[in-house]
Amino acid sequence: MKAVYITIFIIISITFISCEKDNNNQKVVIYAASSISDLLIDAYEIFKQKNDIEVSFNFGGSISLANQISKFDSPADGVIFIGGKPIRILEDSDQIDEEYRYDFLTNTLAFVGHKNSNRIDDLKELLLQSKQRIIIADPALAPLGVYSEEILSSNNMYNQLEKNLILASDAKSVLRSLENHNADYGIIYYSDFLLSKNLVHYEQIEEVSMYSVDYYMHIMKNTDKKNQANVFLKFLAESGDARFIEQITSRGLSRIKK
To answer: What Å distances lie between residue 163 and 84, 87, 123, CA to CA?
Structure first.
């Protein structure tokens, strides 16, 4: 009988130790805007050279990701979102730890076309392109869609172009569709244009090119990996590593000035 008790104790102890070890090895999960997915992956490669913290990412449209966290308790430890709307979604559901907040980057918008599409010099010319496909991010899912809708609506064009519009789930989906010529024109982030091979940037369309937007970083209130998440987000916000600075500037981004 003693042997049985001892065996049970050993099994329970091993299970406890195993769980504790698994908990210690859990990755920090960051939900982040797809528009800077390449930057964050590259930044993490630099970060992990001096930090023993594992980070995994879930990329998508910031509004969509914020709703996943708010409505379905998706397991994010921190977020890197663009614009104010997704942050307000998390604030309204009391998900954010206000002690841990970082301003991060500024990006700009770009009106682009596939290199084989007809050149346009004015946004209003889209109204004459009855058969051309125009792609934007879905305003319900991604801030890029919100900004795109604002621009088109402020020029009294959104309703008129609706039959020509294709809605994509996030910024990178817009980029891929344009690259593959599944659409002729679209509004993307300038940082994504710099990654493109088949697109033309119509800088003269100032209604789009003058539009700037900011990324913000927060840590979730209920995460048990707050310290680890904070080390990574602080690196992104404050690191002076020359390689990381070069990655930011080469993508046409800049840190938000305080």
So the answer is: 29, 31, 16
Q: Which of 155, 67, 73 is nearest to 111 (CA)?
A: 155
Tokens of 255: 């840190």
Q: Are 143 and 226 in contact (CB under 8 A)?
A: no
The size of the chain, in residues, is 258
Residues 114 and 158 in one domain: yes
- Residue 109 neighbours by CB distance under 10 Å: 23
What range defines the domain where residue 10 resides?
Answer: 2-106+214-255
CA distance linking residue 132 with residue 142, whole number of Å: 23
Could you give phi then psi for residue 252, rounded to 5 degrees? 75, 20
Please provide the average confidence, as pLDDT, over all residues in the chain. Answer: 90
Both 26 and 88 in one domain: the answer is yes
Contact 69, 220 (CB under 8 A): yes
Report if pTM > 0.85. yes
Mean pLDDT across 78-82 = 98
Q: Give the C-alpha distances (Å, rounded to integers) separating 119 from 112, 196, 198, 204.
A: 10, 17, 14, 12
**Burial class for 61, CB neighbours closer than 10 Å (0-12, 13-18, 19+):** buried
